[in-house]
Design a protein that fits this description.
The chain is about 40% helix and about 20% strand. The protein is built from eleven helices and nine strands. The strands form two sheets. The chain has a seven-stranded mixed sheet, sandwiched between helices. A two-stranded antiparallel sheet has the order 1-2. Helix 1 runs parallel beside helix 4 and helix 6 runs parallel beside helix 7.
């Protein structure tokens, strides 16, 4: 079977099951060890039997078990780098890339010439902490998660990508955090408990998805304690659900005084990021 025939077979099987057909492209790139451009250049060439078998097995798992493609290949790209992921961690998404982009931009504009201490709460795969460590100079990053297994994955990613300035701490939010920070960033669980999600998303860890009846329980908990862990000049940066802005703003006003609130939309023009500034 040629590359073109195999890819078409994958597209057709996935489309018949109303799933995302681009998964076929991810699988063929992974198992052939080729870029998509290289696959196109090899369209007329025969694939090896090993590649064909691995590809078709992945297609079957995706269709029959609804396993997210990223878990099948144990990879997800984030901010130009490839991160290891499995069923223990949330799959990094483009919305979180935008959160990181805006935080990096803010730091470069507002914290020039200072060594910054950054706290990443609920680090998951470590994509936020590792990206900040690699994109910024003069930063000391603490990344926390409640799960030792999850934290080991975050550490694995940081080591593989040579992000050496991160301390990993097992902690339920601030429980084992001792320092004060210039920047606190978090993409906490924010799916509402009764919200319907896709079959593939449902395979992701529930502890990384659900945030209570209104989806804002973790914001409430973080904001209730956060003042004890902030330097005089600080930024708190949250990703949130598109319909949670007002709820989170009310929590900010409940727990924090004399702060500035900045709302940022994502590239789909949905409310997605809140900055809380203090000086």
């Amino acid at each position: 079977m040629t590359y073109k025939e195999l890819l078409k077979k994958g597209y057709d099987e996935i489309s018949k099951n109303n799933l995302e057909k681009n998964a076929a492209k991810l699988f063929l790139m992974k198992y052939s060890n080729k870029t998509y451009n290289e696959i196109i250049l090899n369209y007329a060439n025969e694939v090896t039997k090993d590649v064909e078998i691995s590809f078709l097995n992945a297609i079957n798992e995706y269709i029959n078990k609804k396993t997210p493609p990223q878990y099948i290949i144990n990879e997800q790209d984030f901010y130009g780098r490839t991160f290891y992921v499995d069923e223990n961690v949330l799959i990094p998404r483009w919305e979180t890339e935008e959160l990181v982009f805006h935080v990096i931009k803010y730091i470069k504009e507002n914290f020039k010439g200072k060594t910054l201490k950054i706290l990443d709460i609920g680090t998951g795969s470590g994509c936020i902490a590792t990206t900040l460590a690699l994109e910024l100079e003069n930063v000391k990053i603490t990344a926390t998660d409640i799960s030792e297994k999850v934290l080991s994955i975050a550490q694995k990613n940081s080591e593989r990508l040579c992000a050496n300035n991160i301390e990993f701490v097992i902690s339920d939010l601030f429980k084992n955090v001792k320092d004060k920070f210039d920047i606190i960033i978090s993409n906490p669980p924010y799916v509402k408990d009764n919200e319907k999600i896709g079959e593939c998303v449902d395979k992701e860890p529930k502890t990384a998805l659900y945030g209570g009846i209104l989806g804002v329980d973790f914001y409430d908990r973080i904001l209730k304690e956060v003042s004890h862990y902030l330097e005089d000049k600080f930024l708190i940066a949250f990703e949130h659900g598109f319909d949670q802005k007002i709820l989170i703003k009310n929590l900010i006003k409940k727990h924090l005084k004399d702060v500035k609130i900045k709302e940022i939309k994502d590239s789909s023009d949905k409310d997605r990021i809140i900055f809380i500034e203090g000086d």
